[in-house]
Amino acid sequence: MQIQVLKSKLHCVSVTQAELDYIGSVTIDEDLMDAANMIENEQVHILNKNNGERFITYVIKGERGSGVICLNGPAAKRVSLGDVVIIISYASMDFEEAKTYKPIVIFPDTQTNKLK
Length: 116
Fold this sequence. Notes:
mainly beta; Barwin-like endoglucanases; 2 helices; 9% helix; globular
């Protein structure tokens, strides 16, 4: 049996941009992507701590070291600049493997989105 489990999480990053005129996605600083073991085009869930919104999109690489967290396309309507969001990715794995799997959880500086 395969189940979905937490693979990785960027816990509490601040939205730096929101670009409505885009196909749709979230642009994430490549340093944060590497730290959280996320890859471009990977599906992620976004949880907005400021307004309770939860939605699904996919990752686009942002400039390394920029601290960018940009919600693009329709997702831009679900955030405001400065909102604090949690970005989560999941993975399918065997039930027994899932019992011992340890997800990666990153706690960047919420003000700068830089790794501590």
